[in-house]
Amino acid sequence: MPTFGFWNLENLFAPENFPQREPWLASRVANDLNGWTDALFQTKLNQLATVIAAMSSNQGPDVLGVCEVENQFVLNELIGVLNPMLPARNYGVVHVDSTQDHRGIDTAFIFDSNQFSPVPNTLFSHFVMRRTGTRDITQVTFRSVIGNHDIVTLANHWPSRSGSSSERTAGFRATAGETLAYWHERIRETVGDDTPIIAMGDMNDDPWDPSVLYNANATREEGDVKRAQSARFYNLAWTYLTRNVTDHQGNDRVINGTLYYQNDGNVFDQILVNRSLLNGDAHYMADVDSADIFAFPAMVDHRTGRGPIRFGLPKGNTANNVNQAGYSDHFPVVIEIGLN
After folding, report:
1. 68, 12 in Cβ contact below 8 A?
2. DSSP code of 327?
3. Residue 135 backbone zone (phi > 0: left; psi -120 to 50: alpha; other: beta)
4. Does residue 338 contact residue 284 with C-beta atoms inside 8 Å?
5. Is the Cβ–Cβ distance between 66 and 110 less than 8 Å?
6. What is the b/e burial string over 174-206, where b = at least 16 CB atoms within 10 angstroms of the residue's CB?
7. Domains and CATH numbers, the chain
8. pTM score, two decimals?
């Protein structure tokens, strides 16, 4: 059964002296990347690849949406580390270089080309319009190698809360939710309302926040989505609000978020599926019970009120701000989607 997932890779930038970096971006991130050596970059890649390879019972995911990646180069380098770990896989990359985000970070997909291929002319980068730059929503249709069945996927990274100020920036995420809902409707109009659609991402809001519930039209009521004639999503994040996991010291832990801020868990990383995926209308059916936070034990902090062990960036001080035993400040989320 194919595994789909999403992971915020936390500032996956090329090394500080990367020659193809745009001058405006090099200036903007110069302090953050001061000391971001090729050796640190390679260590970060190895840490990320170890977690990705462990997904789906150590067989890796079939399709993985990602965010906070700088460019195509870092993605190619990542799958260059990942593919030797999983000889049965042959990962490729779908990426559009965004010019909207003020730090140049993008959304993208990693996919196993033995199982899926991007359908030509179905790659879109949807602008989330606001006064200051933000990340685009990446949309692509994947076609299964077996059976030639299509599924539309959308990778999201909604505008940040800028620390703890969720109210001041709530409108930005409402705009992102409206953008996702708009394209959900357009997809249905263009290719049919029985088309399987999965939207994944770091929403920077919880499942109960208005941007997700009302603007993106993503509900916790599975039955409502199954019966709906309009463009609605079922939000699978409601199924993994709390999880019992094992931390990196082998102790049992309860986690209640996909990331933690000031010791509080938030469920920002979410998987949304449409009616077709719930009803199995067009060859694919979501295994709702399989939706989960992938809390790889080595990346789970043992301290109460702490979530994933982050890798970090130098930000002018490598010794204080980088943990080479870390991974990301977000846990991945996954779901199995069966082929009928």
Report:
1. yes
2. -
3. beta
4. yes
5. yes
6. bbbbbbbbebbeebbeeeebebbbbbbbbbbbb
7. 3-339 (3.60.10.10)
8. 0.96
CA distance 10 to 95: 17
- Distance, in Å, from the CA atom of 253 to the CA atom of 246, rounded to the nearest integer, reads 6
**pLDDT score for 115:** 97
* pLDDT tens per residue across span 229-246: 899 999 999 999 998 999
CA distance 272 to 236: 6
Show the tokens assigned to 203: 């929403």
The answer to whether 301 and 251 have CB atoms below 8 angstroms apart is no
- From residue 331, how far is each of 78, 79, 92, 123, 139 by CA, in Å? 18, 19, 22, 26, 22
- Could you tell me if 153 and 140 are in contact, meaning their C-beta atoms sit under 8 angstroms apart? yes
Q: How far apart are CA 22 and CA 70, in angstroms?
A: 11
Say if CB 91 and CB 82 are below 8 A apart: yes
